Amino acid sequence: MTGNEQDAEDVVQESFLRAYRQLGKFDERASFGTWLYRIATNCSLDLVRSRKRRSENLAPADPEMEDPVLALPSGDPTPERHALSGEIRERVAEAMNELSATERTAFVLRHFEGMCIEDVSRVLECQPGAAKHSVFRAVQKLRRALEPLVSTAR
Questions:
Q1: Which of 32, 39, 130, 154 has the most crowded Cβ, counting Cβ within 10 A?
Q2: Is 136 exposed, middle or buried (0-12, 13-18, 19+ CB in 10 A)?
Q3: Could you tell me the CA-to-CA distances from 109 to 8, 16, 45, 64, 114 in Å, in that order?
Q4: What is the structure's pLDDT at 74?
């Protein structure tokens, strides 16, 4: 969700600190895992929001330094493949940034974390239908944004 390993580590640390501080407020009727995921999601969203505020105030000197996904090397050494991989990484990062916070969170939890819709809905604190719809909207938006690349790669 953060797009950066160091930021993700910071989010994990902050999540556990918040959970420890708020342990007295945990409702034992709820699932501890869902409660912890919600804290981690909130910490992640806080970081993403603060990053957006900072980037709005400062023009990025190097886009690859801001999003390390763009700096990942290609697995295939051919120049054509390397150029296409770089373009794909940029388009995926741009498409993910265009998603709303809820859509991005739902997509990441469902497709990267492998959570079921019921767990995603508990983390997002919404009905399962709303969580499913958020994942669906995210997938549709990503498909539309990445469709030109699919037709180019064929």
A1: 39
A2: middle
A3: 14, 18, 13, 25, 6
A4: 43
Residues composing the chain: 154
What is this structure's pTM?
0.53
- Quick: pLDDT tens for 83-110: 666 777 788 888 888 999 999 999 999 9
Residue 50 in contact with residue 58, Cβ under 8 Å? no
Alpha-carbon distance of 20 to 3, in angstroms, equals 25
Cα 32 from chain centre: 22
Name every residue whose Cβ is closer than 8 Å to that of residue 116 and which is 6 or more positions away in sequence. Answer: none
Question: How far apart are alpha carbons 121 and 115 in whole angstroms?
Answer: 10
Closest CA to 12 of 26, 28, 1, 22: 1
DSSP 34-86: HHHHHHHHHHHHHHHHHHHHHHHHS--S-HHHH-GGGGPPPSS-SHHHHHHHH
Judge residue 84's burial from the number of C-beta atoms within 10 Å of its C-beta, 0-12 exposed, 13-18 middle, 19 or more buried. middle
CB 6 within 8 A of CB 110: no
